[in-house]
Amino acid sequence: MSKKFWYSLMAVLILTAVVLSACGGAATQAPAEATQPPAQGGKEVEVFSWWTGGGEAAGLEAMIKVFNTKYPDIKFINAAVAGGAGTNARAVLATRLQSGDPPDSWQGHAGQELIGTYVAGGQIQPLNDLYESEGWLKVMPETLIPLISQDGKIYSVPVNIHRANVLWYNPKILEENKIAVPTTVDEWFAAMDKLKAAGVTPLALGEQWTKMHLLETVLLGTLGAEKYNGLWNGTTDWGSAEVKTALENFQKAMTYANTDSASLSWQDAAQLVVNGDAAFNVMGDWAEGYFRELGKKPRVDYGWAPVPGTVGVFQFLSDSFVLAVGAPDPEAAVAWLKVAGSKEGQEAFNPVKGSICARTDCDKSLFGEYLQSAMDDWASNVVVGSLTHGVVANDSWKSEIDTALGLFVSNGDLAAFQTALVNACKASGPCK
Ligand code: GAL
C-alpha cells in the first residue's frame, strides 16, 4: 500500500481522536500502531543544510541530480533551512539533535565547529572505511584531513573550499570615481572617504553574522596571517595595542556602511554592489555563485580582490557532510556521502555554488574566471581559517565573540568590546 494511503489513514485517525477529545470522550488517543505508517522498504535520505537560495540551492540541486541518477531507488529529502551562514539552520539542527531526531546527514564546517561540537557531542560517526573504499585520502587535501579528524578518525566529507576574505566591488563605480582597487587598509579607507564625499555608499553590509565576517577579515588585514593565527592558538594577546588598532579599523570600516544593515541578508548586501548602489562588499565567494545566478558578468558587473591587507592570504572554510549517530537510514546516508565526495558530485556542485572542489582532481576548465583565480590562490597563498564559518573557534567561543560584537554594534564601546574579547578567549579559547 502506498505511503499516501497510510498518511491519509493517519490524518483520519488523528482527526477522529481530536474530535473525540473535544467531545469529552474517553478515546482521546489513536492506537499507537496506527500513528506511524509501516515501513515500505523504500529507502530515503534526509540531508540538512542552509542552502536555500542565492546560487547555493542551485549548487545543491546540481549535486542532488547526480545523486538521483546514481541512486534512483533512494528518495532524497532536502531538509534545508534558510538563513546565511547557518544561523537559523544550526539552531534547528541543535534542537533536533537534542530530541534524538537527527537527519541522516548534515552540513558542518571543517575545523572547530565539527570537532568541538558534533564530535565532542558524540553526534557523528567516523568515516575511515568510506575514505578507504573511495580512495579519498589520495584526493582530499592533506591540510584538510586534520581539521576533520580526531584520534585518527575522520568525521566528515568535505565538498568544497570557500574563500572568506574577498572584497567584491563595482568596477564602474570605481572607474567613475577614479579609484584603484585598494590593497591596504589605508588605501581602502581613502577610497571610501572619496566615495562618501561623492555621495556613493562605500560599503554594503548585512545582518550580524556578516559583521563578524567583516571583523575577521579586518583582523586578518590589520594583524597579518601569523598574528591572526595567534588569536586562535593563544600566542596573540587579544588585549594588545595591535588588536586594538584592528578593532579601531573594524569600527571605522563600519562607518562607511549602509545604515539598514541589520535588516539585510548577505544576498541583499551583495546585490547593492552589482546593482550599482554601493561600491564594496566583503563576503565569501558564495557571493559569486549568487552574482552568476542573477546573470551578472565578471569584471563588468563585479570585480574581486583580497580584502585590503590580506593580499597573498587565503582565509578559507570548507563545507562538509557528516553521518549522524542514529541516522534513520545509514545506508542511504552513505550513498549520499559517496556522491558528496565524488569527482562527479563536486564538479557538478562547485562551479554553481561559487566554490572550488575540496578534491584536488577536479577539471579546472569547468570553472569560471573568478573560481580559477581562487584555485590558483588556494594553491599558492598562505592559508588561514575563518571564525564565522567554523574553522578556528568552537561554538562556545564563537558565540561569546558574537555576543560581544552585538553589544559593540549597538553601543560602540571599543574598550568594553576588547575586554569582552579577552575574556572570551580566557573562557572558551586557549588564553590563560
Ligand atoms: C557559510 C557556508 C557557505 C555559504 C555561506 C552563506 O557558512 O559555508 O557554504 O552557505 O555560509 O550562507
Average per-residue pLDDT, rounded, comes to: 92
Helix content: 40-55%
* Global Rg: 24 Å
CATH topology of the largest domain: D-Maltodextrin-Binding Protein, domain 2
Quickly count the helices.
Answer: 17
Report the CATH C-level class of the largest domain: Alpha Beta
Principal-axes shape call: globular
Give the names of the bound compounds: beta-D-galactopyranose
Question: How many distinct beta strands?
Answer: 15
Strand content: 5-15%
Low-confidence stretches: 1-39
The CATH superfamily of the largest domain is known as Periplasmic binding protein-like II
Which structural class is indicated by helix and strand composition?
Answer: alpha/beta
Q: What characteristics describe this protein?
A:
432 residues; alpha/beta; D-Maltodextrin-Binding Protein, domain 2; 2 domains; four-stranded mixed sheet
Could you characterize the architecture of this molecule?
- The protein is α/β, with parallel strands linked by helices.
- Helices cover 47% and strands 12% of the residues.
- The strands form 4 sheets. The chain has a 5-stranded mixed sheet with strand order 2-1-3-13-6, with helices on both faces.
- Strand 4 and strand 5 form a beta hairpin.
- The protein is globular, with a radius of gyration of 24 Å.
- Bound molecules: beta-D-galactopyranose.
- Beta-D-galactopyranose (GAL) binds next to loops.
List the helices and strands and how they pair.
Elements: H1 3-22, E1 43-48, H2 56-70, E2 74-78, H3 87-98, E3 105-109, H4 112-119, H5 128-134, E4 149-150, E5 153-154, E6 157-158, E7 160-163, E8 166-169, H6 171-176, H7 185-197, E9 203-204, H8 208-223, H9 225-233, H10 241-255, H11 266-274, E10 280-282, H12 286-293, E11 303-306, E12 313-317, E13 319-321, H13 330-341, H14 343-353, E14 356-357, H15 369-380, E15 382-385, H16 395-411, H17 414-428
Parallel strand pairs: 1-2, 1-3, 9-10, 12-15
Antiparallel strand pairs: 3-13, 4-5, 6-13, 7-12, 7-14, 8-10, 8-11
The protein binds beta-D-galactopyranose.
